[in-house]
Amino acid sequence: MSLPLSGKVAIVTGSSRGIGAAIARRLAADGAHVVVNYNGSEAAAKQVVEDINNEGRGRAVAAKADMSSIEEGTRLVEDTVKSLGRLDVLVHNAAFKTVGGLDAVDEADFDAHFSINVRTPLFVTQAAAQHLPKGGRVVFVTSNTTKTSAVTPEYLIYTASKGAAEQLVRVLAKDLGRRGITVNAVSPGATDTDFFRGDGKSEEFVELIANLFPQKQIPVAEDIAPLVAFLARDEAGWVNGQCIMVNGGMAV
């Protein structure tokens, strides 16, 4: 029996670990040939590729590109099409996050967030749109921080940048939708990854977050990836311009 993404080529930015790695593995399990993008984590990216290729369903290759750079991001697209012959699915997962409220934010912090979370994804989508066929898919990984009143002031610029990305989704869905290409966002809540824990959260704070979920636990990356895989399928062709929360009911 053919797998749902057999013959498809997918790029997942920032996929050497965390949610991105889980997405890459899930797309490959559904038969896709996945480009595992990394910047500084080459060993981790190669491990994801090895895991996928050993599984024997889809295939994978690793590709280095700094997603703060429009030039490197667009080169990733062009190199993928040149080497693999096509591009069907583009997942914008690479992200930047620091913690700091109004008193702490500066221009460099603002620019870093909007460069990786908004600007490069926009222009990479522009480059990818030249190659995506009818039935192509673009998925942004955003954040529940754009929708919940529980967000703290320290997530000021991160939340603003992810909100901007979600507005891109809504407009691009109208634009690319004319060609039968869907653009959606998957918006996880807190997910137990290095990215989540990397800003120095204490175990007490992690437990507090866990208790906000009805299930009294924090989901892992593998709980997020199936929705991205669904959006990549042909069956999801009428899901377009949506920002879908994946948080177990923490924010509704």
Describe it for me?
The termini are far apart. The protein has one domain: Rossmann fold, CATH 3.40.50.720. Helix 4 (107-128) packs parallel to helix 5 (156-177). It contains eight helices and seven strands; from the N terminus they run E-H-E-H-E-H-E-H-E-H-E-H-H-H-E. The model has no long low-confidence stretch (mean pLDDT 93). The protein has helices at 18-29, 42-55, 70-84, 107-128, 156-177, 194-197, 203-210, 221-232; strands spanning 9-12, 33-38, 59-64, 89-92, 137-141, 182-188, 243-246. It has a seven-stranded parallel beta sheet, with helices on both faces. The radius of gyration is 17 Å and the shape is globular.
How many domains? 1
Helix proportion range: 40-55%
The CA-CA distance between the termini, in Å, is 37 Å
Report Rg. Answer: 17 Å
Quick one: overall form?
globular
* Secondary-structure element string: EHEHEHEHEHEHHHE
Strand order of the largest sheet: 3-2-1-4-5-6-7
**Which secondary-structure class do the elements indicate?**
alpha/beta
InterPro entries: NAD(P)-bd_dom_sf, SDR_fam
GO molecular function: oxidoreductase activity, acting on CH-OH group of donors
Family: Belongs to the short-chain dehydrogenases/reductases (SDR) family.
Keywords: Oxidoreductase
